[in-house]
Write a structure and sequence with these properties.
- The chain is mainly α and 202 residues long.
- It has 7 helices and no strands.
- It has helices spanning 2-44, 50-57, 61-64, 68-94, 101-129, 136-160, 169-200.
- Helix 5 runs antiparallel to helix 6 and helix 6 packs antiparallel against helix 7.
- The structure holds 2-acetamido-2-deoxy-beta-D-glucopyranose.
- 2-acetamido-2-deoxy-beta-D-glucopyranose (NAG) binds at residues 74, 77-78, 81.
């Protein structure tokens, strides 16, 4: 009877220890998660659209951790993917019936600009993934040039949809998607700039 009681006591102690260890582990994981999210929040505060920056990047916090390089390359990759899907939407839209000639023309111009934008962002993502070798400054310079070009194309596309002559569904749905993509591009450019600056002026 005594030994049974002893076993139960030991088991109970083990059980408590396990609970304690688990909660320590969970607390540590939470701390790390918080630190990663905090890094994204701090970095995003230097962009023009910090809220969008945080919402689009925080789901990658565990991969990014506290790496300015991974933050910049993830921002570029997320932006590329959104630009691609905006481009697809636009192509689908352009096949719909009943558009005014003015709308059809703006849409067609926009499709071209978005295609260029996708291409420029693709080059940037590719360049970011290149291992060192090429001069870092030149590499960053190229990326900054291409991302800026992508942003200009998106603005040109947006402007085509802001005329007073245009209203209705096409304008509203297309424009809001492009605005979001342009804001994401602006944020990605800021994150690339600050990564480049951090390496060049440590
Ligand atoms: C972008 O899309 C590609 C291909 O679908 C995917 O492999 C990649 O993980 C996406 N990027 C991000 C940051 O989600």
């Amino acid at each position: 009877m005594a030994s049974l009681y002893g076993s139960i006591t030991v088991l109970a102690a083990l059980f408590q220890l396990t609970i304690h260890l688990n909660s320590c582990l969970a607390a540590r994981t939470n701390l790390r998660k918080e630190a990663n999210t905090q890094f994204i929040k701090t970095s995003c505060s230097g962009t023009v659209y910090p809220d969008l920056c945080i919402t689009t990047l925080s789901s990658y916090a565990s991969e990014i951790q506290a790496s300015p390089k991974l933050l910049a390359s993830t921002a570029l990759s997320v932006t590329l993917n959104s630009t691609r899907s905006a481009s697809k939407t636009m192509i689908k839209r352009s096949k719909s019936q009943g558009m005014k000639p003015r709308e059809a023309e703006a849409l067609s111009d926009c499709m071209e600009e978005l295609r260029d934008s996708v291409y420029e962002l693709q080059r940037s993502v590719g360049e970011m993934d290149q291992p060192g070798g090429k001069n870092f400054g030149l590499q960053m310079n190229d990326i900054e040039t291409w991302v800026s070009a992508a942003l200009t194309d998106e603005h040109t596309c947006m402007d085509g949809f802001s005329g007073k002559a245009m209203n209705g569904n096409v304008k509203t749905s297309v424009r809001s998607q492009i605005v979001k993509v342009a804001h994401m591009t602006s944020n990605a450019l800021a994150l690339v700039n600050s990564y480049a600056a951090a390496i060049q002026n440590p």
